[in-house]
Amino acid sequence: MLACVLLADADAALARRLFAVSPSMACDGACVFLDLRGLQRLHRHPAGVFAAIRSALAPQVPLGMALADNRFTAEIAARHGHGPVTVRTGEEAAFLAHLPLDVLPLPHALAQRLLPLGLRTLGDFASLPRAAVERRYGAEGLALHRLACGQDRRELLPQRETRVLSVLVALECPVDRLALLLPALETALAQLCEWVAEQGCGIVQLALEVVLDHALASADEGAGEPAAAGGAGLATWTVALPEPEARMALLLELLRGRLEAAPPGAPVTALRLHALRTEPRTGHQNNLFGEVARDATRRREALARLAALFGPRAVSTPQVQRAHRLEQRWHVPDEGAAAAPAAAPARPPLPPSSAPTSASHALRWLPEPEELVPVLARGRLAAFRRGRQELRVVRFSGPRRLTGGWWKQPWVRDEYELLTDDGALYRVCRDGVRERWLLLAELD
Amino acid sequence: MLPSAEVPFLSSGWEALDRLLGGGWPAGVLTEVVGRGRTSLALAAVRQAQSAGQPVAWVDGPGTFCPPTASVDLAHLALVRPPRTAGAATGARAATRCWLAGDLLLRSRAFGLLVLDLPPCRPSLAVCFRLARQAAAARTVLLLLSEAESGVAGSAAGVAVLVRQQHHDWSRRTLPPPPALELTLRRYRGGASGACVVL
């Protein structure tokens, strides 16, 4: 069942009052449609609906009100009925039958073709055979014929109630300690987060405004200098969040931190929490039979915590670049280090990759090359000592000579792969400038 | 222990190894991989996880991760390198940072695969059990890479694998071919096992 309320003019503020009657409302100019499905137990009977509408609009009075099963009938009944009208289910065609044809949204060309036929009322038009109307006037004529018969398939596109996301809490007595202020703050924040979460949004910018009692502060301190930041008797703290957030505990911690860093300069008598900006939260949808979707927000949070713990460069997304030496073929961008938490999202699923048939050359590259003590036999490297361990070379490949830096700081080195008797394959090099052997990496 | 009927698996990248493991690397279980060749196994797992759209993190305790040879999608790999201050590279502090990073990443429950590459330091068994519990709660595939062939996780590991490289002959003028990997399943479903496979 739909209710149509005809207002004096298109007044969005007045129409919003009708959210008290139904949470599903759509405005079309001065007509406001209310979806009453599921609200029978609330309003009980049509008279209850009309009373609720009058009460919501008071002291304004609607120009017309009607209840019907579809939008067109309800609108026509509200416009042309005398007082509140209820069109019962199945009686739409009978109600519309005596109304003039021009209540239909007739295009001019079609009206010129219909009126010469002697059609004067909706009932006349509805009595025409539907197939003949469709054949002669096409889809447009068929749609109008359905309306004349009291059949309207158009659904409402309900508006969302725009709630002012602000909570005011008046304290019973002035509070001068943070521990006493926090419960009130928590109550207000819980209400605010609930509203925000209902709308599927998160808070991006939050403001806390407190009313300060300077009279008490002056009496205690003997000085009447206000410490308010937001004007006389008011102090304001603002919290900006990088992601939409609706978790009360987190927001409370942030506000607590702000208040501890800059406490109010006088006892607080009231506080107001205001969500200055909200944005839709980026949710994730699990499916019934697939893998559990991973929450990108939690992932970014975890990486940000690690970055805060170990330093921004500890969490990185290295980038590969072209270079002559392997150790220079990647770098961690400075700006990328800070932005690294956002650079690790879940990839969209790719087609399953083909199984590798063998291992590739995965190297463990030593952060600092380790100097080796070579054991030469007839001018060739036969073994080397690594710490206290002497490793005999079983097989090797190389050398591969790399040179460069002639324009600034020349370097030359010969690289080898050495298989030692402990089964490890090392990449070593002989530094031609400093005449030393270095262990670079191990194949792993 | 592996709740076999409910545990999803991540393909290892080798059919033979998947068969050996009963489907792949199990999620929610601490899997310990020791020996030479462990990095290749872990990188193959990373490739499979990225193909499946799962977020991956790699905690590089020794600081030896080599991006150019990793052959994974680096843009979608969260690489965590705890700082290695002088004197702590092989010490307990570096290891503690690794555990801390691993614990934090697991608690976020936001990663499908976590590779924890440990510096050469033996952790306490309590730490390993804590990680195993976190992995079970997060249903994350946790690969623990350790240099010590004896392993470090002990009974906390649901699966323990020993890897060895088998090198082929090669000419001294060419780069050595990738070695074959010989895997021995030391521990599976909390019990002993001795199954072996060559990849």
The outline of chain B comes out as globular
SS strand fraction of chain A: 25-35%
Distance between the termini of chain B: 26 Å
Number of strands of chain A: 18
Mean pLDDT of chain A: 81
Largest interface: A-B, 64 and 73 residues
The residue fraction in helices of chain B comes out at: 25-40%
Radius of gyration computed on alpha carbons of chain A: 39 Å
Class by alpha and beta content of chain A = alpha+beta
Report the total helices of chain B.
5
Helix-and-strand structural type of chain B: alpha/beta
Oligomer: heterodimer
Give the terminus-to-terminus CA distance of chain A.
72 Å
Overall, the morphology of chain A is: elongated
- SS summary, helix count of chain A: 13
Uncertain regions of chain A: pLDDT < 50 for 5+ in a row? 222-231, 335-359
| Helix-strand pattern of chain B | EHEEHEHEHEHEEEEE
Return the average pLDDT of chain B rounded to an integer. Answer: 83
User: How many DSSP E strands of chain B?
Assistant: 11
Question: Which consecutive residue ranges of chain B, at least 5 long each, have pLDDT under 50?
Answer: 1-5
